[in-house]
């Protein structure tokens, strides 16, 4: 039996007086493709942001690649993680954002090579060669020299995916990566992600409102409500035969809103 | 009426002093602005306090008084400066305090998204600043920096207080010797304006260079 690559154990997250994650526990196996779905405000983004260390936690433990994410062992004492520990842990994880967050002052190629050169000390030439391979994979070979402002939303998002991949993380987080795109640009990004899911053994966590895509992409679907997992299982089970009332209501609403499942 | 070319030479000598003060003062102001501006948002509280005290002190007292202190009072603490150095120090620290707020504001106005992307890409704090935040903040600072430099240029005239023979001082000398007010003061009017234009043009050119490719972003 292989060990989980992510272990979330009784995780709490509070914003002021609002409890966003409430004793949340789940494991993710290496290579697993996970879809996180649920109503707005249920805490999906917060989970990804916590895994990317963009938020702090209020309680509980998270283990990533066999090490505590927010805690470090010093002798027999457990201390909150310091910046050096977080830096070490982040090397396992990459994230793609809803609004791409490309660096506007850098060319497409420089966006992709910046982190490998700076954080891994890769030679520029090697980083560029790899960046060009990644650009080819996302179908943007001809855009290496372009500035982000010259790209469409779908192109920007594909560059952002390539940028995150350049660091070769073992875990990739995708937070509603198509929801800021015009409808006609969604497909090109989903295609890239489908290929990625099929061709790599990376562990992927996907937050999405595209139920059809979640169905196709995921090995397992987690349905969240109010910071807790209401129901989880293989996509066929969650989308075809949800057992929980809240899951059924949620999916009905999504279908009524015109999304295919 | 005397020899006008001799008087003009006198004013030009003064112009050189004014230019020196402006260039060196601006250089110091720039350093002080970044030190204090970054200090204001530093994670360490004592660093923030220090930066705040500096900024509030130099913004809250007049350049006139600051210059007086630097030149006449510091010697009692064993620090004697030449008039030029005293002028540069007072002007640089004074304008630096204003520009520090510009640095801070520009850094804080870079969208949070950008900062989060640098964390997701695992850059160190220094790398985040140097490669992502500052390159985007700099173009926002430049126009105000240009104004600050012009403010500094105009403030240089106070140095006659500590017997520095800047452009305004020399114009007064010429006026005293010739009895003409119009000619020396028209001359320095044009010279001040020309220097301000050089600053404006230089800053614009720099701005154009720094924002290449950024069009359509903001
Ligand atoms: N920085 C913050 N400060 C205060 N409240 C926050 C903050 N970030 C998120 N929240 C709140 O936490 C709750 C969960 O937010 P989260 O973004 O994780 O939801 P979500 O499931 O991703 O929703 P959506 O589908 O709308 O993206 C929401 O009620 C949100 O308002
Ligand atoms: Mg969200």
UniProtKB/TrEMBL annotation, chain B:
Source superkingdom: Bacteria
Gene3D superfamilies for this protein: MetI-like (1.10.3720.10)
Main location group: membrane
Signal peptide per UniProt: none
Topology with respect to the bilayer: Multi-pass membrane protein
Database matches in PROSITE patterns: ABC_TM1
The entry's keywords: Amino-acid transport, Cell membrane, Membrane, Transmembrane, Transmembrane helix, Transport
Ranges annotated as spanning the membrane: 6-37, 182-203
Localization annotation: Cell inner membrane; Cell membrane
Domain ABC transmembrane type-1, residue spans: 15-200
Family annotation (NCBIfam families): ectoine_ehuC, HEQRo_perm_3TM
PANTHER family xref list: L-CYSTINE TRANSPORT SYSTEM PERMEASE PROTEIN TCYL, MEMBRANE COMPONENT OF AMINO ACID ABC TRANSPORTER
Family statement: Belongs to the binding-protein-dependent transport system permease family. HisMQ subfamily.
Protein name (database record): Ectoine/hydroxyectoine ABC transporter permease subunit EhuC
Gene field: ehuC
């Amino acid at each position: 039996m292989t060990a989980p690559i992510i272990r979330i154990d009784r995780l709490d997250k509070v914003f002021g007086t609002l409890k966003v994650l409430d004793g949340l526990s789940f494991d993710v196996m290496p290579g697993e493709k996970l879809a996180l779905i649920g109503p707005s405000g249920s805490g999906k983004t917060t989970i990804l942001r916590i895994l990317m260390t963009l938020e702090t936690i209020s309680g509980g433990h998270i283990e990533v690649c066999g090490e505590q994410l927010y805690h470090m062992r010093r002798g027999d004492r457990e201390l909150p993680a310091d910046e050096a520990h977080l830096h070490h842990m982040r090397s396992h994880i990459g994230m793609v954002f809803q609004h791409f967050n490309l660096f506007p002052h850098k060319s497409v190629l420089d966006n992709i090579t910046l982190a490998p050169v700076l954080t891994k000390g890769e030679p520029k030439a090697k980083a560029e060669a790899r960046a060009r391979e990644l650009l080819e994979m996302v179908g943007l070979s001809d855009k290496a020299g372009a500035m982000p402002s010259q790209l469409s939303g779908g192109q920007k998002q594909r560059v952002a995916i390539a940028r995150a991949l350049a660091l070769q993380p073992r875990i990739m987080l995708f937070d509603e990566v198509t929801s800021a795109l015009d409808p006609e640009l969604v497909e090109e990004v989903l295609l890239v992600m489908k290929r990625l899911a099929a061709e790599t053994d990376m562990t992927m966590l996907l937050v999405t409102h595209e139920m059809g895509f979640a169905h196709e992409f995921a090995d397992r679907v987690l349905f969240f409500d109010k910071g807790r997992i209401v129901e989880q299982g293989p996509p066929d089970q969650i989308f075809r035969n949800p057992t929980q009332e809240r899951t059924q209501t949620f999916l009905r609403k999504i279908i009524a809103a015109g999304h295919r499942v | 009426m005397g020899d006008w070319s001799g008087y003009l030479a006198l004013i030009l000598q003064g112009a050189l002093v004014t230019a020196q003060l402006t260039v060196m003062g601006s250089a110091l102001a720039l350093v002080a602005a970044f030190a204090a501006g970054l200090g204001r948002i530093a994670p360490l509280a004592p660093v923030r306090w220090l930066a705040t005290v500096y900024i509030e002190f130099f913004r809250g007292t007049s350049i006139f008084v600051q210059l007086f202190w630097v030149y006449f009072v510091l010697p009692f603490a064993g620090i004697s400066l030449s008039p030029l150095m005293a002028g540069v120090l007072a002007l640089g620290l004074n304008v630096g305090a204003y520009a520090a707020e510009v640095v801070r504001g520009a850094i804080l106005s870079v969208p949070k998204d950008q900062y989060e992307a640098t964390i997701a890409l695992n850059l160190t704090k220094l790398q985040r600043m140097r490669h992502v935040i500052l390159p985007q903040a700099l173009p926002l600072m430049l126009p105000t920096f240009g104004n600050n430099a012009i403010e500094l240029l105009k403030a240089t005239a106070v140095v006659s207080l500590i017997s520095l023979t800047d452009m305004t001082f020399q114009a007064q000398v010429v006026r005293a010797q010739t009895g003409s007010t119009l000619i020396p003061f028209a001359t320095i009017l044009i010279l001040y304006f020309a220097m301000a234009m050089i600053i404006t043009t230089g800053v614009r050119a720099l701005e154009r260079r720094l924002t290449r490719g950024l069009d359509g972003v903001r």
